[in-house]
Design brief:
Blueprint (H helix, E strand, L loop, with lengths): L2 E5 L2 E4 L4 E8 L6 E8 L6 E7 L4 E3 L7 E6 L4 E6 L8 E9 L2 E4 L3 E6 L1
Parallel strand pairs: 2-11
Antiparallel strand pairs: 1-3, 3-8, 4-5, 4-9, 5-6, 7-8, 9-10, 9-11
Amino acid sequence: QVHLVESGGGLVQAGGSLRLSCLVSGSIFGMNVMGWYRQAPGTARELVATITSSGSTNYADSVKGRFTISKDNAKNTVVLQMNSLKPEDTAVYYCRLIIARVVYWGQGTQVTVSS
């Protein structure tokens, strides 16, 4: 059984930084893709950033140059470093894992950026 638990959300002023972590528990072997998604009230969930098991990364245009996704294989953790935050980054942020064509989601963590 695989579980994802996010942490690190909170309230920050515009221009500030937050660091989100996603701890993955369970057996994870082989090719996989981990990512961060977000959902603001009244909107669809959208991709923020992904990272493959080989380390390739992909970012939404809206966060390029401000957010960085990374992973620590030894700790089974994926991190999203968010800098220069904007009010429009306010959303619930979800961690996602795809492995063997199965999709797992975390419970989400709230990020609120005040202007």
